[in-house]
Amino acid sequence: MTFIDTHAHIYDPLFDADREAMLDKAASQLISQIWMPNCARETIPGLMALSEQYPDRCLPMMGLHPSYVGDTMEEELLAVEDQLNRNAFMAVGEIGLDFYWDMTYVDQQFTALRTQLQWASNLKLPVSIHVRSGHDRNAFAEAADVIEQLALPDLTGIFHCFVGNLDEARRAIDLGFKLGIGGVVTFKNGGLDKVLPHVSLEHLVLETDSPYLAPVPYRGKRNEPAYLRLIAQRVADLQGISVDDVARHTTANALSLLPALHANLLPE
Fold first, then answer.
1. pTM check: above 0.70
2. What is the pLDDT of residue 154?
């Protein structure tokens, strides 16, 4: 039984003091892989250093996070494109739309999203999509609209940190995406208790989004990949199955996004 943390910012400075111990703890909890999303140019060195140090455990994505879209968007996208052309990545991410804090660069967020979705399609890579609503706008719905409008061939990936309702879950699944389930599933008013009992396990993957969104009982503290087991347990409880089943299926679901890289690692 192993798990994959499909979204964790383990290059974050919050791990500088104990990164190796954090990774050892994750291994002790049977976390076999940690997928690392990029945010912007400033996060590339740390991301790449970890992927080089732990090539079989820490897998890098490359992308421009919507919260980092601003006046320097063109330079940021050029840096992402250069990395995608020069190095091997397991996904394009994290990309998407964030309306929560500031709407100043919303038009540029859409440009960055469309551009990076096209790159992913061209490279036949999955995407990790960040959607955070705010200012009376639904980021999930608007990102899904973009995906439908582009109609790119074989586009797939994960709606990271999925917190939507059942209709949104079904729409994501119909688009060919997995739902990334993280610490919010353990929150009393997180809402996923009304969704996950009605969604087949084949559509789910697990994530921590470390160092953010730690699950109960660590809510409000630094998150880390070892806590993925708590998320898996809550999913198991909501689905009425064992943690072993959650581990087996979500690991297979994650690896199915990367058939060329990991077909030989799919559990029997």
1. yes
2. 87
